[in-house]
Design goal:
With 318 residues, the protein is mostly helical. Among the domains are: 45 residues, no CATH class; 161 residues, no CATH class. Helices cover 62% and strands 5% of the residues. Strands 1-3-2 form a 3-stranded mixed β-sheet, with helices on both faces. The chain starts with a helix and ends with a helix. 36% of the residues are buried. Bound molecules: zinc ion.
């Protein structure tokens, strides 16, 4: 499954002429952002296209949540340090070829999150999905959900090489696509992209997907992926510890978003394991889309969030 690069170029050209005609700074900025996104996508297929556009996207943060988290800075660092200084062995199992990834994803969605199915089908039908092994596309990413406000649409990129160990990136990105689909105008979703909890639902889908893989008999591979998931988390925690020279850096680093999103997702995932329903993540999505970051911290309570992953890690080490 691939993007239609000619269509992307056409859209880029439309935006380019719009950009030159529009005078209002805010609209100009928005078009600029969309041009940047399209440029990133086109360059995957056509290196010569690169227009060297600098991103001017600036996130809008929830100030109340920011003040609260900064106030709890010491407590957060201490708790993360205490709970997550763990070493995990992560031996690579056989990387099995997947015969029919499309069917696997559909089966997963059908059984675990059927409401995403129409979003997935639309991505495929409109050529808005790019499954690709290429490492040179935004190299640090294994997947991306790209938003285009002008055309009110979104695209998904997921690294995938036909084998099981790369099968988790698409479910993650489908979470972002689903959330973008929940708002009528993609532009309204834009400010949510800077939320500290923007990764929660996607992370939940990753955890559900591990669960699904175990059910399908890919036990070793699923445990390996799950351990990798937590190894990343611990690396983030340890990296944070070294990185944090001041409190501002702490909240601004992407690491913090990944750490806190994984922990909230784990609260919801543990609830799923216990009750075999998705009530808690549905409630989370509702707060995420309609409330603020502060509402989320208030609902789940910081100390509970910080301790959320400990049992999962304990289970994986044994
Ligand atoms: Zn993500």
């Amino acid at each position: 499954m691939h993007w239609d690069v000619n269509e992307l170029k056409e859209k880029y050209n439309i935006l380019h002429s719009l950009y030159q005609r529009v005078n209002k700074p805010l609209i100009k900025k928005e078009i600029w952002n969309d041009m940047y996104t399209l440029n990133t996508m086109i360059v995957l297929y056509d290196k010569g296209f690169d227009k060297k556009i600098d991103p001017i996207y600036s996130p809008a943060e929830d100030k109340q949540c920011r003040d609260y988290l900064l106030d709890k800075y010491d407590e957060i660092i201490k708790a993360l340090n205490e709970y997550y200084q763990i070493r995990m062995k992560n031996r690579r199992p056989e990387n099995v070829v997947i015969e029919d990834y499309d069917s696997l994803i559909k089966d997963f969605l059908n059984n675990y999150q059927p409401e995403i199915m129409p979003v997935y089908n639309n991505l495929v039908e409109n050529n808005h999905l790019e499954l690709n092994t290429k490492k040179d596309f935004e190299p640090s990413y294994n997947g991306l959900c790209l938003y285009n406000s002008t055309f009110n649409e979104y695209y998904v990129f997921a690294r995938y090489n036909g084998k099981i160990l790369s099968s988790l990136y698409l479910p993650h990105e489908l979470g972002h696509a689903y959330q973008a689909n929940q708002v009528e105008i993609v532009r309204d979703f834009d400010e949510k992209r800077s939320s500290w909890f923007v990764e929660v639902y996607s992370t939940y889908l990753e955890q559900l997907f591990f669960h699904y893989l175990k059910e399908k008999g890919y036990n070793k591979q699923a445990y390996y992926l799950e351990k990798g998931f937590w190894t990343h988390f611990i690396n983030d925690v340890e990296y944070q510890m070294m990185l944090i020279l001041n409190t501002d850096l702490f909240l601004n680093s992407h690491c913090f978003t990944y750490i806190i999103s994984k922990l909230v997702s784990t609260i919801a995932y543990n609830d799923f394991l216990k009750h075999n329903n998705h009530k808690m993540i549905n409630e989370f999505n509702n707060i995420f889309l309609n409330g603020s970051d502060y509402d989320i911290v208030n609902e789940y309570k910081l100390s509970r969030i910080l301790h959320a992953g400990y049992d999962s890690l304990d289970r994986l080490i044994k």
